[in-house]
Amino acid sequence: MTSSYGLEGRAAVVTGGTRGIGRAVAGALAAAGVLVCVTARDAGEVRRTAAELGGVGLAGSVADPGHPEELADLVLREFGRLDVLVNNAATNLPHGPLMEAGADAWREAFAINVEAPLRLVQCAWRGWMREHGGAVVNVCTEGAGHVGPHVGAYGTTKAALLRLTQQLAGELAPRVRVNSVSPGLVRTELARFVWETAETEVAAALPLGRIGEPEDVARAVVWLVSDAAEWITGADLLVDGGTRVRAARAASGYAVHGRLRAHSPAPSTGRGAV
């Protein structure tokens, strides 16, 4: 990763920053000279990642009361500034038909995927960005633009996050730019059940011929938070290998939807970003 974006010395928070897309984003920002704070639920992974990046970390769920405030306080105390916020942490539960979605799981999905990003932006705004400016990127999903089997809750929350991105962009301009990235199928642990046994089939249907890597998304995020994108706000950047335009290329159905129909996860909370 080049440091030509002029990000040296700035400070960033990356949620869900110990694996997958979040880890790649945190690493790319650190390589560009950014002081990075990561947060995730596993305390050991947070400590390890923070040490690898030469930054700091805070274990916990972004939806826990007080966690956004504690996170902002940590960054301001350790780095003296908070220029960049990447809202990457997410849950893909409840998985299955919406008619089977329980009330508690539905509320938790919105608490993690929609409310937590808002609370984190509020904390960053009040602590630093209102006076000094900054950039926010929310990690959404290509799937928010259409329906799919068994991902109704996830898609609905991410559609809400897209709308939140636009609203915040309008309210916080010109001091703070707020954008989103929407990945297609990326090689993450959370999405392993989709790509592991059908990668060749899925990749063949994409115009660019492969599924995504976390680094593909990370490069887009680094660009969006840099001054190279200083006239961009309220935008959603698709990083999907051409998923949205595959219909012009593939004659058969989308293999990812077949994998989603076949998947029946155990009843547990899975959090991360895909």
From TrEMBL:
Protein's UniProt name: 3-ketoacyl-ACP reductase
Enzyme Commission number: 1.1.1.100
Entries under SUPFAM superfamilies matching the protein: NAD(P)-binding Rossmann-fold domains (SSF51735)
Source organism of this protein record: Streptomyces griseochromogenes
GO MF, one example: 3-oxoacyl-[acyl-carrier-protein] reductase (NADPH) activity
UniProt similarity note: Belongs to the short-chain dehydrogenases/reductases (SDR) family.
Keyword tags: Oxidoreductase
UniProt enzyme class: oxidoreductase
Highest taxon in the source lineage: Bacteria
